[in-house]
Amino acid sequence: MEGCHSKDRRSKAGNIIIPDENSGCRWSPSIPACGRKKRQLHVEDVRVESDVWVFDINAKAPRQLKNTNAVRLVPIHEELKRMGFLDYVSEQRGAKERLVFRS
Fold first, then answer.
1. Residue among 13, 9, 30 nearest 84 (CA)
2. Is 43 in contact with 100 (CB distance < 8 Å)?
3. So what's the pLDDT on residue 31?
4. 53-93 pLDDT, tens per residue?
5. What is the pLDDT of residue 90?
6. Is the dihedral angle over the CA atoms 74, 27, 97, 68 positive or is it negative?
7. Is there a contact between 58 and 71 (Cβ–Cβ < 8 Å)?
8. Rounded CA gap, 103 and 90, in Å?
9. What is the 3 state secondary structure string of the chain?
10. Is the pLDDT of residue 51 over 80?
11. What is the rounded distance in angstroms from the CA atom of residue 62 to the CA atom of residue 57?
12. Alpha carbon of 56 to those of 33, 70, 89: distances in Å?
């Protein structure tokens, strides 16, 4: 998992992870498996399936996918868990947010 060089040099790779308060932007670049549909990821879509934390990429309304082949379960990487992603999702749930990432 790669961060940025510094607060002023976010476009240069480095080891610093800078949280963007209240937006979830910190996590968004680290979740390529969700593609452009990250905006549609609901807190209920981050769940446990057979003892494994997953992203449930589904077509439940109001989400939209290109086709039925896009429906899938994507395991959440251990590094995301280590960085506190599941705590972030839990906070979103506690705040009654519907989406993981705000627009």
1. 30
2. yes
3. 72
4. 999 988 888 888 888 888 889 999 898 898 889 999 999 99
5. 95
6. negative
7. yes
8. 18
9. CCEEEECCEEEEEECECCCCCCCCCCCHHHCHHHHHHHHHCEHHHEEEECCEEEEEECCCCCCCCCCHHHCEEEECCHHHHHCCHHHHHHHHHHCCCCECCCC
10. yes
11. 12
12. 11, 11, 14
pLDDT given for residue 27 in this prediction: 63
What pTM was computed for the model?
0.68
Tokens of 31: 């979740």
Tokens of 34: 């969700």
What's the length of the chain?
103
User: 58: burial class by Cβ within 10 Å (0-12, 13-18, 19+)?
Assistant: middle
Judge whether 98 and 43 are in contact, CB under 8 Å. Answer: yes
